[in-house]
Fold these 2 entries.
Entry 1:
Amino acid sequence: MPDSDTLTFVDRPADSVGLVTPHVAKFDTPLPLACGKVLPEYELIYETYGTLNAERSNAVLICHALSGHHHAAGYHGDEDRKPGWWDAHIGPGKSIDTNRFFVVSLNNLGGCHGSTGPVSHNPETGRQWGPDFPMVTVSDWVASQARLADQLGIERWAAAVGGSLGGMQVLQWTMTYPERVANAVVIAATPRLSAQNIAFNEVARQAIRSDPEFFGGWYAEHDTVPKRGLKLARMVGHITYLSEDAMGSKFGRDLRSNDLNFGFDVEFQVESYLRYQGDTFSTAFDANTYLLMTKALDYFDPAATQAGDLASALAPAKCPFLVVSFTTDWRFPPSRSRELVDALTRAGKSVSYANIDSPHGHDAFLLPEPRYHALFSAFMTRIARELNIEETAREETL
Amino acid sequence: MRADLELIYDWVPQGAHVLDLACGDGALLERLAQEKNVTGYGLEIDPDGITQCVARGVNVIEHNLDDGLGSFCDNSYDQVIMTQALQALRRPDKMLDEMLRVAEEGIITFPNFAYWRHRIHLGLRGYMPVSKSLPHAWYDTPNIHLSTFNDFEHLCREKGLVIVDRAVGVGDHKGHWTSKWWPNLFGEIAIFRVRRR
């Protein structure tokens, strides 16, 4: 049985899972992909928080978003200044309470944080996969996540949870493996991308692919990275993650210095912020992975197999759903979540929906907010009650 | 449970698929699900109510009733219940149409403005009534369409609806005999069960 990765660490907040170490799961059974290709072997990097109970009934799967990864909570080392990307919601006493639940968070196939992807070695050619890495879809990810669950001895998730692109994976789970998901939490997601969403993704892809350093995706063999392209892609993406109000209140029209300099250097604070975000991202993320992830977003459309009828596509789902949106999210606005909720009610599924008032746009799903926390916790507590999940780690935090 | 909810509980058939408009903390739906195998959804706009529903395991959807019931198909439910919300809607008459589009039967409760205590407030003392069922001051009340037991009957007649059942609640109890004979005067809460003809 996998043990908890969490260690006691005195300098971190009491509600942190503490220091964590990633694990790597190896798979040598070939994985057939939606694009028709087959991945002969692959690895998935993952972290776990909390303790798997004897009944193996308290496991929660975390599915990550576009630029996410396996490191969702806690710290990797003493020098880490920032915890995992969803630390606000995973930990002792948090929405996903690690005193009760055993949380599994992985990096998806095609990722660039340790799971097999474009930066991995292609066993057939001896080169890096690079642009040859096959296109992966949300269904492919879910299939690979199911194999990880098998390896961990988890027959059924107490809950599958995800925001944005992560929410789409959760939806896919409920349709592909209805028996293996006891509950689904779909946050700030959409049942399919709009033309505008795809358009933004295409701008990001063009920025990367038109960078002279891209070399058709073989930049690694030229000892370079398409930094400018990735930076632009991230800048454009970042605009869609924030709300107009959030940007306005954070930066307004503030200037970096007092005077206009009538040039094209950074003048407004918002320019400085976006450039900084883009620069940081361009050295930390793989361009081929970014291209793949945006394509997985674009392709996701479960209703397409049912002539556009989302309710019929959701017919196999068996579990209760919690759907959450945020008022100022314009990337996947509340109306898209409502579309999903309406399909679920038409299909007669168990579903609750809340539209949380937040000024933070799409990014709100990552942040702590009292109502969001109360609602999310209430749903998770109800799951623990119904599945008779006892606290497994209380003594560690007392 | 509130007195009006007790009465409604009896009117919902075993195994019915219902929509509960303004379901509050979900107490009615929870009991109906546990004891009568009732399925369905509550619609609510209050964040605390929504969280309480989720904690109980009651399906709740954040929804502003003034937006209508457009996302729900014709005849997709057995009953639509709406307790203590009619008077706060922008167009109560349109909501009645919507309820009976989505289901064949509707159950509606609202504060009876013609209740004798309300009449004393207005008729003798000359002030807008404030009571247990109408706790707000005139300037901050969410109740923008107050009506009486008789008014609602009149609206149902105009719309050609069948009144299957009617009852009144007084305080925390079902109506006294006086309220049975003179509901418009002695009923504090009006409770109607109506159907399409």
Entry 2:
Amino acid sequence: MTHAIEIRDLHKHFGKNEVLRGIDCTVETGQVVCVIGPSGSGKSTLLRCVNLLEEPTRGKVLVEGVEVTDPDVDIDAVRRRIGMVFQQFNLFPHMTALQNVMIAQQRVLKRGKKEAEKVARTNLERVGIGDKAGSYPAQLSGGQQQRVAIARALAMGPHLMLFDEPTSALDPELVGDVLAVMRKLAEEGMTMLVVTHEMGFAREVADRVLFMDGGVIVEDGSADQVIGDPQQERTRTFLKRVLHPEG
Amino acid sequence: MTDRLPPPVAAEPGGKARLSPRKKQRISRAIQYVVLVAIAVGIVLYADWGSLAENFAKPDVAGKALPELFTVALRNTIIYSVGGFIFSFVLGLVLALMRLSTVRPYRWISTLYIEIFRGLPALLIFLLITFLPLALPGFAVPGGTYGQGILGLGLVGAAYQAEVFRAGLQAVPKGQVEAARSLGMSAARAQITVIIPQAIRIVIPPTTNQFVALLKDSSLVLFLGVSGEYVELAKFGNDLASQYANATPIMVSGLTYLLVTIPLGHLSTRLEKREVRAR
């Protein structure tokens, strides 16, 4: 059986700075995997290597059996199957929410305008903001923008979704809406790789949790194991800081 | 004047304090007004208004400028400027994209072009254009005189417009390309659909300024040796001025330029403010 994502001995250097130092892991179809760890641990870089927004220095990344690190592979075709959601939303500010969700369908999947609009409206409904279709990103709250971004990715019919700290730029009272959408996606069986600081979400939704520090995976196991009963000292220190910031 | 604040003077009760800063300022302001009025009165008294009006604002000479001032001269100025602007807009965008390209020779070519055409006086370019037929026998710039004027303005304007576009393209956040690419768009598609439309919005205010600069530079068409139906405002004013040995037509041309450039300048300022608010 092919894995949804397979990562073998992945290294990434930025100049002299070794951000990833040998990552091995797999994500199975339908799994929700949360990546946690201190800032600078390489979580986001790992995620960005999966759809090649960062070019790995060494190692292999396979998505559904296709080696994305192979220079001969059509990376645009692979990316169509990978939805990505960014910390800063990255909506296209010159387009309405509806157009944001339609544009890649039309330009990349060559869907007709009518079909693209139908799919877009369905997905905006799905994330709970069907009534904001005509609004521009600047007119939406952070939480609404992030949900448009999720709808934009979903409209492409991705096989798996990457979330790069999707709630970190949100006001605290807006985090819940976005997490609810992600929880629903997980329940529907979407394969998800999520970099997050939301321990509650990880604990409740993740099938597996990876704890990263210093460019390596320190701990890999079920949410209860890694968050509830960490085996490594580094994991324990990190969780103590995150869960009890006042010390 | 020192930039340090004077030590606070304890207010002396009884009002015997020396001049307070505010009083000093009021007196200084009054002195400035007196000087200004004195200068104005001096100008009014000593200038020879009769002679000035005779040479710079003679109504009957000004009347001779009509209607060709608008039907020929302004019309041609606008043809040269708009034509040159479109030329420079398209070439400028191409140069900016080349300048930001990952292909090194593209960057070299673009940088070379921009350095040369920004470094040379526009007048020199126009003079060179008049020699083109000598350099390339059998070659004629399409569009005749209009074509030559537009070519000159476009070549020079493109170098400046390229830098304006470069700033605009670089002002679009990196996350925009990443979002577009992660949706499966090719690099070219991402530029066309996502980056360039945003960059153009960003550069509308500076581009309006570019257009004003280009409109003023269109006066250099004079050096192409244009005549008759091809004259634009500056040449038109100059010709009439020579004909009547009177500067009034040049003043009239100048006013006509201002009629266009001042509103455009204000438009640019308004657009800039709107841009700031939209952020």
